[in-house]
């Protein structure tokens, strides 16, 4: 066969201009990777680390289990030599030369990606040992000039994480002969800045945080990156996605924040993925003795509204009372009567009750410690539930929910209505006070629901007794020269490595405002319509009031008009407004004040000094209740008025508002009259047939009488021109009504 020379030349030319084929890089086998970490005890941080490692199927070997930690801590002098000793010993037992070791801290570390990505990036570094890198030099700043310069990125070595081949790591630690409390950071730094050792061991730094992200000195560089059902940390300075995130030094709060999400703890797609893990279920328990014993610590530190309601909710908690011990601390004499009333009815229901009153001279801090000791010293106690009296526990399952979560420290999220206030802080400022985390508003408004590791909680929390007997065994956890007791307590909890969780998985309740609570009345809660309107309504407004304004139930209202005489006379409306408690409190408040008018025409309380149709009464302004009554009329009467009289919009102004007393031997009735109002509100404050006989109201023009007004129900009728009326005689007992002339 004859081959054309021109063809051969052409083929050679084509081959010459084709790009050379780059050989494919053979990635390292992840089975060759072993993670080594030191953990002398299983802290909450260690459990978080292990969970992230297991999520990505890392093989982890833990060194130092059961040993006493002698390596110091990050807040004091440099330490960590114990980790070098344990690593050196572990490496001596590893014979495979191609084994790759990732040596990493655990208490303040989370994985954000798996072994495959880690090994790929390690291989791309083209060195046998790669250390994490830091912006700040520590612990010896005098060594700064000896560090090699880098073209871009971080220049200083971080000892909290490194990866390398076994032979190279063995060479690196071969000269270690230090003490456990010597500095591992300084030891590795001196190896790194020695040019000969650096070259022999083949060490480099992960300067752009492709493998390791140390947070100290880099907080402004790191953000969360949500992607496809997982969460990562992104370094925005270098546009990298580190595999490992380390809250080194004083950045424990920041790693706790990131650990609420990374790697998949909470995502937008899945929500909370860990909230159902490690639960302690009581759903199958039938017998009370199987429920854990809980000491409930109740703390009353200042005058607080609705204390009686607090104890009612305590009684209603769905938890076997014989498994509950009560510790009650009361610093406020005003509340002695509330505690006494509770104990008289329910003390026998509980296993143990201990009370410290205001006469015993025990301060607030000491009381907290005594409460903790009551649980510590009881071998059967498994939990301490601390709750301040201003906490409104609306959820009767609160205690059971918290114990089932099986956390060392967990709090139910509590809010204040209409505000972004809660009983937890999402972050701390540099000086240890409140700061708002990026996710705070979303958590408060339940756009993110889960269990959150936070730096501060107050007012209500559940502590496991084993933690009180170990990490928190200090007998004085609340004292500080610079911080208030709650802040000092949370600081000590954090320092002991105990995570404080808050959960918003359920609606638990709220916290009362106590700032302006006055105790100069008989029933002081009546005055709380401004400071605590939600609680005031629950306590004092009739449970069926809202049905009047509900369009769906308005059909039922028409039904009542026909059959139950909600409109008993033309343009006279009868509806529930007050609870029985409200009526009783108003009557008792007026009788306690006691300055009833004489029922004569001369009346210096009103403008002009003359009353045409006098009654025996006490005006709301005499007991300083006029602003609260105005608020009540505006919030609860005005909406009904606009519903019943379409087209009329009231400003709910009143000239007179008062409580009237009728007695057969005093003033049994009231002569026919018009009211000086656009419309009048008349609320029955006690019950006919029980508290009195007779009474009622007759509208003369319509010859229509209402003889059996229900306690807590209001009559609303026009005041002028059409509804000339009289008060019918009370024949026995005492009748009380609250009257308002609205829009005079």
UniProtKB/TrEMBL annotation:
Its main location: endoplasmic reticulum. Residues 1-19 form the signal peptide. InterPro entries: Collagen_mod_GT25, GT_PLOD, IPNS-like_FE2OG_OXY, Nucleotide-diphossugar_trans, Oxoglu/Fe-dep_dioxygenase_dom, Pro_4_hyd_alph, Procol_lys_dOase. The keyword Membrane applies. PROSITE patterns: FE2OG_OXY (PS51471), LYS_HYDROXYLASE (PS01325). GO terms for molecular function: iron ion binding; L-ascorbic acid binding; procollagen-lysine 5-dioxygenase activity. It is a peripheral membrane protein. SMART domains: P4Hc. It is found in: Rough endoplasmic reticulum membrane. It is an enzyme of class 1 (oxidoreductase). The chain crosses the membrane at residues 290-311, 548-566. Residues 653-744 form the Fe2OG dioxygenase domain. It catalyses: L-lysyl-[collagen] + 2-oxoglutarate + O2 = (5R)-5-hydroxy-L-lysyl-[collagen] + succinate + CO2. Its EC number is 1.14.11.4. CDD domains: GT_LH1. GO terms for cellular component: rough endoplasmic reticulum membrane. Its cofactor is Fe(2+); L-ascorbate. SUPFAM superfamilies: Nucleotide-diphospho-sugar transferases. Keywords: Dioxygenase, Endoplasmic reticulum, Glycoprotein, Iron, Membrane, Metal-binding, Oxidoreductase, Signal, Transmembrane, Transmembrane helix, Vitamin C. Coiled coil: none annotated. This is Procollagen-lysine,2-oxoglutarate 5-dioxygenase 1. It comes from Astyanax mexicanus (Blind cave fish). The gene is plod1a.
């Amino acid at each position: 066969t004859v081959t054309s020379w021109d063809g051969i030349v052409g083929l050679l030319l084509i081959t010459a201009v084709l790009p050379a084929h780059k050989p494919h890089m053979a990635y390292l086998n992840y089975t060759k990777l072993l993670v080594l970490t030191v953990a002398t005890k299983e802290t909450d941080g260690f459990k978080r680390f292990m969970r992230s490692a297991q999520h990505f199927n890392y093989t982890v070997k833990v060194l130092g289990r059961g040993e006493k930690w002698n390596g110091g801590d990050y807040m004091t002098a440099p330490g960590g030599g114990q980790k070098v000793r344990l690593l050196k010993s572990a490496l001596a037992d590893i014979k495979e030369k191609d084994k790759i070791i990732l040596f990493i801290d655990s208490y303040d570390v989370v994985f954000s990606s798996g072994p495959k990505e880690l090994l790929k990036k390690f291989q791309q570094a083209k060195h046998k040992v790669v250390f994490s890198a830091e912006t700040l030099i520590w612990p010896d700043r005098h060594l700064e000039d000896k560090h090699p310069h880098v073209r871009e990125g971080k220049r200083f070595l971080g000892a909290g994480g490194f990866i390398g081949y076994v032979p190279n790591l063995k060479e690196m630690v071969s000269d270690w002969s230090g003490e456990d409390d010597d500095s591992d950071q300084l030891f590795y730094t001196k190896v790194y800045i020695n040019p000969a050792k650096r070259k022999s061991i083949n060490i480099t730094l992960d300067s752009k945080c492709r493998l390791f992200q140390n947070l100290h000195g880099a907080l402004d560089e790191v953000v969360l990156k949500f992607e496809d059902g997982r969460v990562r940390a992104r370094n925005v300075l270098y546009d990298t996605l580190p595999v490992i995130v380390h809250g080194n030094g004083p950045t424990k709060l920041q790693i706790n924040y990131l650990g609420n999400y990374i790697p998949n703890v909470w995502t937008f797609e899945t929500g909370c993925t860990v909230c159902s893990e490690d639960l302690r279920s009581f759903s199958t328990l039938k017998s009370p003795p199987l429920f854990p014993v809980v000491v409930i610590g109740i703390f009353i530190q200042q005058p607080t509204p609705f204390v009686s309601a607090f104890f009612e909710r305590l009684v209603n908690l769905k938890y076997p009372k014989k498994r509950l011990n009560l510790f009650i601390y009361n610093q406020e004499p005003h509340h002695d009567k509330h505690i006494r009333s509770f104990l008289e009815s329910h003390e026998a229901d509980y296993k143990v009750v201990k009370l410290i009153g205001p006469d015993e001279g025990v301060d607030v801090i000491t009381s907290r410690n005594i409460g903790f000791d009551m649980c510590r010293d009881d071998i059967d106690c498994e939990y301490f539930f601390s709750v301040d009296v201003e906490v409104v526990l609306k959820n009767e399952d609160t205690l059971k929910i918290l114990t089932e979560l099986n956390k060392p420290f967990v709090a139910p999220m509590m809010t204040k209505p209409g505000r972004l206030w809660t009983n937890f802080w999402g972050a701390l400022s540099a000086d240890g006070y409140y700061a708002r985390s990026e996710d705070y508003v979303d958590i408060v408004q339940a756009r993110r629901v889960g269990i959150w590791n936070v730096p501060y909680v107050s007012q209500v929390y559940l502590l496991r007794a084993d933690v009180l007997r170990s990490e928190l065994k200090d007998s004085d956890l609340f004292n500080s020269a610079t911080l208030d007791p709650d802040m000092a307590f949370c600081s000590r909890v954090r320092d002991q490595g105990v995570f404080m969780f808050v959960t918003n998985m359920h609606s638990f309740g709220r916290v009362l405002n106590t700032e302006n609570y006055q105790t100069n009345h008989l029933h002081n809660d009546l005055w709380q319509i401004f400071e605590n309107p939600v609680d005031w309504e629950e306590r004092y407004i009739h449970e069926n009031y809202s049905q009047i304004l509900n369009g769906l139930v308005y059909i039922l209202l028409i039904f009542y008009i026909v059959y139950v005489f909600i409109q008993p006379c033309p343009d006279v409306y009868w509806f529930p407004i007050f609870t029985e408690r409200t009526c009783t409190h108003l009557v008792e408040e007026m009788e306690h004040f006691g300055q009833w008018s004489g029922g004569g025409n001369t009346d210096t309380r009103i403008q002009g000094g003359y009353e045409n149709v006098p009654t025996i009464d006490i005006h709301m302004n005499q007991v300083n209740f006029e602003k609260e009554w105005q608020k009540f009329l505006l919030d609860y009467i005005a909406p009904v008025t606009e519903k019943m009289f379409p087209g009329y919009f009231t400003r709910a102004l009143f000239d007179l508002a008062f409580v009237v007393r009728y007695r057969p031997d005093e003033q049994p009735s009231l002569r026919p009259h018009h009211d000086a109002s656009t419309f009048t509100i008349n609320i029955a404050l006690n019950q006919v047939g029980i508290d009195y006989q007779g009474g009622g109201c007759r509208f003369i023009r319509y010859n229509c009488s209402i003889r059996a007004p229900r306690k807590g129900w209001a009559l609303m009728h026009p005041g002028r021109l059409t509804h000339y009326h009289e008060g019918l005689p009370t024949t026995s007992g005492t009748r009380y009504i609250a009257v308002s002339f609205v829009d005079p």
